[in-house]
Design a protein that fits this description.
single chain; 255 residues; mainly alpha; 9 helices; 85% helix; elongated
């Protein structure tokens, strides 16, 4: 028989863990010099190492939008809508979600399996025995690293996506670079930028917290380690999609 208390208990646990992680951010900034290396390594892995695939994907999406959109909008004599379309797809809607998917595939699995391995090998117990808070030492730097990296990757994706679109645009017209980017800036609003950043922060928090929780949730068997990674990926995917829909709906309702 299905018991509604079980999923509610899990939700409250996740929210409580998230609250403790946020509380630990202040302590980490003031006192955790020892964990600063973990933060740097997390940004290196999540941001720097993902620049290659992000560049390729951004150029491909920018090119695809132009190849599909320019002929269609030209038939309707609505060429100026191309700039709005680029901003909506690359900066506000598709870009943040695609970056989240890249980070989930790379970092969510890595974080969940790494922490699960620490739990299985009793490394987390060793931290606790010497008075080190595992949330402040293990969770907070990964939470900050993933969130910061996702925001940076999103900005990087937008720049390269719009630049890649200009390169392909030269195949269809002789639009000057000055006119192209002036038009983009004309249609790009503060609301678009804010929504893109908000989505990046939300996705970064979701991915990191879910991966950390799944990593800590293992018990004793080593076979639980890969399972924790798979659970982190599936849960992060689902939550990011739901949050993306909710934030997009809020954007159109408010504005």
């Amino acid at each position: 028989m299905w018991n509604p208390i079980v999923p509610l208990r899990g939700i409250f646990y996740d929210l409580g863990f998230f609250a403790k992680t946020l509380k630990g951010v202040g302590f980490f900034i003031r006192h955790s010099q020892a964990s600063f290396k973990i933060l740097i390594m997390q940004i290196l892995f999540t941001f720097v190492h993902a620049l290659g695939i992000t560049t390729l994907l951004a150029l491909a999406i920018g090119a695809a939008v132009n190849i599909i959109g320019v002929p269609f909008l030209t038939m309707l004599n609505q060429q100026q809508l191309m700039y709005t379309l680029l901003i909506v797809i690359i900066t506000r809607e598709l870009g943040p979600l695609l970056i989240a998917f890249i980070v989930i595939a790379r970092s969510a699995t890595a974080i969940a399996t790494e922490i699960a391995g620490m739990v299985i090998s009793h490394e987390v117990e060793a931290y606790i025995s010497v008075g080190v808070n595992p949330i402040e030492h293990l969770a907070v730097p990964r939470f900050l690293g993933v969130t910061i990296s996702l925001v940076l990757l999103n900005v990087y994706f937008s720049i390269f996506g719009l630049a890649g679109s200009y390169i392909v645009a030269q195949l269809f017209s002789s639009t000057s670079m000055e006119y192209y980017f002036t038009s983009l800036l004309q249609y790009l609003t503060i609301q678009d930028i804010l929504m893109s950043i908000i989505k990046s922060i939300a996705f970064g928090a979701i991915i990191s917290i879910v991966a950390i929780i799944k990593g800590f949730s293992v018990e004793r068997a080593t076979t639980e380690v890969p399972v924790a990674g798979l659970k982190a990926v599936s849960s992060a995917f689902a939550l990011c999609i739901v949050v993306n829909v909710l934030l997009s709906a809020l954007y159109y309702v408010v504005l």
